[in-house]
Amino acid sequence: MQNKLLLVDGQDLLFQMLFGMPNKILGKNGQNIEGVWGFTQALLKMIDMFKPTHILVIFDKEHKKVKRSPSDFYKNLQNESEEKEEKNPLIILPEIKKVLEELHISYFETKKEYGLEDYIKEYCKQYENKSDIIISSWDYDLIGLINEHVSLLTYKGKSSILYTPEKVMTKWKVKPEFFADYKALVGDNTNNIAGIPRVGPKMATNLIKNYGHVEDILKNISLIPKENVRLTLDIFQKDLLQNIQLIRLKGTSDIPITLEHLKWENEKTETKEILKKVDLLEAS
Fold first, then answer.
1. pTM for this one?
2. 37 in a domain, yes or no?
């Protein structure tokens, strides 16, 4: 497709850069600006990687608790952050907004009744047939949105991973549209969801392969060959349905900024120059 939309989970990137930058960077007035520096640098690198024609950054203002990724990368960040003074990633949001406005990149903050993931799902639903979409986030719940036109980027500089349908299938042995069902069966530590007893990754993939989504698995319990799995699923039906309800993204019909208003002209610039323009660094 000619259009390419970069959807950035701004809350996720705020957390990552506020706690993940290795050294303190002092700004014009002696304040710490490493979070803003990291956010700006990461965003510019993503732009350079994918050359998007449209960009949107979303912040989850009402949902201040950021989900932790199952990756070792985020576990390390969490451990490091516990040793530092507790910070709210939103403290650098005003400076981030200035950067985005200087770059002419669209952004908005979520409303109370919807989560960030709901908005991302709606953008994918409405525009995946009009644009290729790259979602930047470490929230694995978004894997369920991946298809031939939607991919998920877990940004980590040169170690970044772009999840496509093929990559998801290779890693988890299920198609993206069944990823929520897989998590509902095996559990999801990031959301504090316990899996179903006696159902490990291999059994979960077999159940999905043979019967489909969670609701279809439960309709066909009597056909499952292993008696212990059959009995367990029968006992834990309510728990499994609650799991999938918590994990599966709901979406929202509310699109604050339409695709035509997300157009972005590719402008070559550097982090340092942007931070000078927004008065966070001394002009040389």
1. 0.88
2. yes
